[in-house]
Every structure is written in structure tokens, then in C-alpha cells.
Write a structure and sequence with these properties.
The chain is an alpha+beta fold and 596 residues long. The protein has three domains: 189 residues, no CATH class; 143 residues, no CATH class; 136 residues, no CATH class. Helices cover 43% and strands 25% of the residues. The protein is built from 17 helices and 16 strands. It has a 16-stranded mixed sheet that branches. β7 and β8 form a beta hairpin. α2 runs parallel beside α4 and α5 crosses α7. 27% of the residues are buried.
């Protein structure tokens, strides 16, 4: 009965065509929104318009519910339509809109959101035409019957008929003036109570932000970090002071996507300067980020979870080189190393900042012949059409920027006796919008390890790792049940190479073996101090390893000569010693042979 009275209120009440059209269009547009957290600003604006414009709320709710069910079915169409709008002739207008303060908060850079707006307007307009035509026709006929039909007048004069109509359709016991209703087109376009509601709600949001800003900032940061990391991120608290331009985070733990039982990074306390004006453009610019109590590789109390699948690993046979092989040819745990390299590739790709790769899914391995359109469609189909944004339209400054980062005395589980010092500059989500390239420097307290990365179209990487256990290297290189090819002593590794935006690497390694034993041709060969150059080329997610076989051959040859020399020396020493003993009478001390 409630529904029939709502419908009756539309037919017999003062709802104008404008109010009906506003309810249908705004309700449908809200229904086609992919989600509040995807476009919160636009959802709030549409809701305020629905209240302010005196739109019919019942009709908006019904049409919005239908549109929401339909939206999931036509989400690929919303995505395609959004691409046509954002990447088509209107791209310049949307680019300005997305980069304007306040308007940037609407979230129209999301393809599904922008396409959903247009689909919502079209769907709502079609429903509005049908509803307005039906209501207008009903009122016109009722006005004609009230004036010209004696039969209608007779029935309307009956008390039980008037009460039945009132109970079922509402609108009072007397017939409304259908002629006046049919003639009214707009009426009062603004709802007075709506103005009060919007004002009170706006004040409430501003006041609430002061109290709930930590929760809001925490939610936004967690969503962004998990999207970038690919695995769950924990954060105990987040506090922001816009007047002082200060951001403080505590209890941050970033799960390792390749090992959910450990943290890739964790810190007790993070403090930074921020720009409040950038928040109006949906930007977060952080300066002087100081990290206290940081740890790398720490075991988690509760295993993390995967947010989205890791990138696929693709092989590339065109990089096969003479005297070279893939990871599988050298390592018995090649898949673990390959996963690590894929993760490293995704980080370097983000640091490189190719504008064409700044969208979600940029860490996906992609065949060289795949077009951008097909790649975008593939990523959208895999991760969800509502998750893809036109980040290439963001100009002037990146969405997220860390101008300066410093972390001292960082604990690393794999380096228990030392502490790391980490500094970084210009880390961002859109590196091509930053004037200076991103740089990262890591050093240990005893200089056991060192790493320097300078990003760009061709990134440069320089680093070293001294004093690695020869036994641990040997176990990593060991295959099946065979003896490890290396044991004992220590190994030093240093490298200086490049990583291109195309994904190819040229990393010459210099491996120095100190007091180790190499197993060559089934024989353990002692090596006191030996340098072996190794080349890493090809693609980072499936590199080819090239070893200087001539150099190894020379080692084996020298080692073989040394073994022969040592053996000859030992034999001559034994024979010379026996001869000397005989000359000096030493043979008399030798016990007599037992009797036959």
C-alpha cells in the first residue's frame, strides 16, 4: 500500500515534470556510479543536487536501484564510453577539469565513472520521458473526466470510493485540480528544506573532518599503498594537521607480495611535512619524510593477503646469447629469483615514469607487439573495469610525491650485525611530472652493502655486496643432489649497469671469490683471490646470464697445473726424505718386517 500511495502521490500530487525529470536523471546517474570510494566527490555533489533541486525522491530511489543493477551488467560499456570521452575530442576539457582545485576531487578521471555519468543521463532521460508522458496523459484524461463525464462525477461523489482512493493512492478525499496540475511544468525548482539540509551537512562534514581526519587519511593511504604494493598494508594510526602542514603515521607494515608471512617494510613512526593546498587537487605532496624504527624482512604475526595478482612472468627467447643461459640453467630455485626480479622490475618501471605506463597495471609484462588499447582492455578485464583511471591526464604535479626521505639505523633480518641508512628523493606516482629524477641510496654501517639508483629513461644502478658466505652462494647455485659448485670462503659482488624504459638490462657483475673452492670438472679447485666477470642482459623479469668461459678455463688450467705441481713436490719430498734417512742411518730405527 505504501508503494501505491507513492505512485498515487506522483499522479495526484503536485509533482511537476521538472521534478520527475530531475529525480529520474539524478537517480540514474547515482546508480551508474561505480562506487562511493571510487568517486566520492561526484557522489556527494549528485546527492546534494538531488536534494536541492526538489527532485522526486521516491522516483529517484526506484530509478537509481534499477540503474545500479543495470550498471554492473553494462560496466564494460561504461568503461568504453569513458575512454571515448576522456581520450577522445573532449580530452583537453577533461584534462583542465581534472587538474583544477576542488573539481579534481570529483574523480572523473576514472573511465567507468565518466562513462557512467553519460549512461546515467541517457537512461534517466529515457525513463523521465516515459514517466512524464504517462503522468501528463493521466492528468489530462482525469481533468477531462472531471469536467465532462457525469458517470465519473457520480462515482466520485460516493464516500466509500473517495476513501478507497485516499487509502490506496493518497492525495486527500477530494479530487485535485488536474487541469492546473497538467499545466504546471516546473514549479518551485529548489527545495527549501534541501537548502537547509545541504548547509547543515556541509558544516557537519567540515567539523567531522577535524575529528575524523585521522580515520579518513588512514583509509586513503591504506587504499593507495595496497594498490601500489599488491598486498595488504597495516597502519595503526594516521594524524594530519593542515595548519601546521604535518603528517604523522605510526605502526606501518607493508606485506611482501612474494612472501605473505614477512614484511617488505615496517616502521614504528613516520613524520613528514605536507602541502594542504595540494589536497584540493587530490594530490599528496610529502617533504622531509623521516622514518624511525624501520625494519626490513621482519616476520609478520599474522600473514598478509594478496590485493591483486602479481604480474605474469614472460620469457623472451630473442636474448639468448652464446655461452649464456636463463635462470633455470643456473639456479635450482629460479622461480623465487624470477618473482623477485619481476617485483624489482615493477619498482623500476614506477621510478622510470613512462607516461604511457602510469596507469593501473603498469607492472604487467606485455608483449612488444601489444597495442595500448588492447593492453588497457586486458588489464581492465583482469582487475575490473571500475579500477582503471586516465592518469595520463594528470599534469603539473603527480598525485603522490615524496620530495625527500631519510631513514637511519634500519634493521634488516638478512644483515643482523649492521644497520642501514636509506635516503631517497623525488619518489612519485607520475615521475615524468617531476623536474628531477628519482634517486635512492642505501648503505650499511660497515659498507657491506651499497646501492645507488638514479631513475630516468635509462636508469643507472650501482651497488655492491661484500662478504657473502661462499656456502650460501653454493647452495643457491646447487642443482638437484649434486655437490655445490662453490663452497667455503666469501664472495664479493659489485655491479654498475643500466635499465631502459623498454625493460631491458645491461648489468655487468664482477664476482670476487676469496679463499673459496670451485668445483670444476668434478674436482674441487682452491681459489685464493679470483675475479670473475658475469653479464646480465635481456629483460629483467627473465634475464640471461653470460659467464666468461675462457676465464673459467684459464682458472681450471692454472689450478690443474698447480695441483700437478703440488703433487710432484709432495712426491719428490717423500723420496728425498727417504733417501736422506737412509744416508743418515735412519733406516735402523725402522722395525723389521714380520716373518713370512
Amino acid at each position: 500500500m505504501i508503494i501505491t500511495r507513492k505512485i498515487g502521490a506522483i499522479l495526484r500530487g503536485k509533482a511537476t515534470p521538472f521534478q520527475l525529470a530531475a529525480g529520474c536523471v539524478l537517480g540514474a546517474t547515482l546508480g551508474f556510479m561505480p562506487g562511493f570510494f571510487i568517486a566520492p566527490g561526484l557522489t556527494i555533489v549528485l546527492s546534494f543536487l538531488l536534494v536541492l533541486l526538489n527532485a522526486n525522491l521516491f522516483l529517484a530511489a526506484v530509478v537509481g536501484a534499477i540503474a545500479k543493477l543495470l550498471a554492473w551488467a553494462v560496466l564494460p560499456a561504461s568503461f568504453a564510453l569513458g575512454r571515448l570521452m576522456l581520450d577522445g575530442p573532449l580530452e583537453g576539457g577533461f584534462r583542465a577539469f581534472i587538474n583544477t582545485p576542488v573539481f579534481a576531487l570529483l574523480g572523473v578521471e576514472n573511465y567507468a565513472t565518466t562513462g557512467g555519468i553519460l549512461l546515467g543521463i541517457i537512461f534517466g532521460a529515457l525513463i523521465a520521458m516515459v514517466v512524464i508522458q504517462g503522468v501528463t496523459r493521466f492528468r489530462t484524461r482525469m481533468a477531462h473526466a472531471s469536467a465532462n463525464s457525469d458517470r465519473y462525477k457520480k462515482w466520485q461523489s460516493k464516500t466509500w470510493v473517495r476513501w478507497s482512493v485516499f487509502l490506496l493512492a493518497g492525495g486527500g478525499l477530494k479530487d485535485p485540480d488536474y487541469t492546473a496540475l497538467a499545466a504546471t511544468k516546473i514549479g518551485n525548482p529548489v527545495r527549501p528544506l534541501g537548502v537547509v539540509f545541504v548547509f547543515v551537512t556541509t558544516v557537519f562534514i567540515i567539523v567531522s573532518f577535524k575529528f575524523f581526519a585521522p580515520t579518513i587519511i588512514k583509509t586513503v593511504l591504506l587504499n593507495g599503498l595496497e594498490k601500489a604494493n599488491g598486498a595488504s598494508v597495516d597502519l595503526e594510526s594516521a594524524d594530519i594537521d593542515l595548519r601546521a602542514g604535518r603528517l604523522v603515521l605510526t605502526g606501518l607494515a607493508v606485506t611482501d607480495p612474494q612472501n605473505l608471512s614477512t614484511n617488505l617494510f615496517a616502521a614504528d613512526h613516520l613524520e613528514a611535512d605536507i602541502s594542504g593546498s595540494d589536497l584540493l587537487r587530490k594530490r599528496l605532496a610529502i617533504d622531509n619524510l623521516v622514518i624511525v624504527g624501520a625494519e626490513l624482512g621482519k616476520t609478520r604475526r599474522v600473514p598478509g593477503r594478496v590485493v591483486h595478482a602479481p604480474p605474469d612472468v614472460e620469457s623472451d627467447s630473442k636474448w639468448n646469447l652464446p655461452d649464456s643461459g636463463s635462470l633455470d640453467d643456473y639456479l635450482n630455485n629460479a622461480q623465487i629469483w624470477r618473482d623477485r626480479l619481476v617485483l624489482l622490475k615493477s619498482w623500476l618501471d614506477r621510478l622510470n615514469g613512462d607516461p604511457a605506463q602510469d596507469n593501473a597495471g603498469q607492472d604487467e609484462s606485455t608483449a612488444p607487439t601489444e597495442s595500448w588499447d588492447k593492453r588497457l582492455e586486458r588489464i581492465a578485464a583482469a582487475r575490473g573495469y571500475d579500477q582503471i583511471t586516465a592518469d595520463h591526464l594528470i599534469t603539473d604535479s603527480p598525485v603522490f610525491l615524496i620530495s625527500s626521505l631519510r631513514a637511519e639505523k634500519v634493521n634488516a633480518t638478512w644483515l643482523p650485525d649492521e644497520r642501514l641508512s636509506i635516503t631517497a628523493r623525488n619518489l612519485s606516482t607520475q615521475p615524468h611530472l617531476v623536474a628531477e629524477p628519482a634517486t635512492i641510496t642505501i648503505t650499511s654501517s660497515r659498507n657491506t652493502i651499497g646501492l645507488a639508483v638514479s631513475a630516468g629513461s635509462t636508469s643507472r644502478l650501482t651497488g655492491h655486496y661484500h662478504g657473502i658466505s661462499g656456502d650460501s652462494i653454493g647452495q643457491a647455485l646447487k642443482r638437484d643432489s649434486s655437490a655445490p659448485p662453490l663452497s667455503g670462503g666469501t664472495v664479493d659482488i659489485s655491479f654498475e649497469g643500466t635499465y631502459s624504459a623498454a625493460g631491458t638490462i645491461d648489468w655487468p657483475l664482477l664476482v670476487t671469490l676469496r679463499k673459496t673452492q670451485l668445483r670444476l670438472a668434478g674436482r674441487a679447485v682452491p681459489v685464493d683471490n679470483f675475479e670473475l666477470p658475469i653479464g646480465l642482459t635481456g629483460t629483467l623479469n627473465n634475464p640471461q646470464i653470460k659467464v666468461d668461459r675462457d676465464q673459467l678455463g684459464r682458472i681450471a688450467q692454472r689450478a690443474g697445473l698447480k695441483l700437478l705441481q703440488d703433487k710432484a713436490t709432495k712426491t719428490l719430498s717423500e723420496k728425498a726424505g727417504g733417501l736422506l734417512n737412509g744416508l743418515l742411518g735412519g733406516g735402523q730405527d725402522k722395525p723389521a718386517d714380520p716373518p713370512e
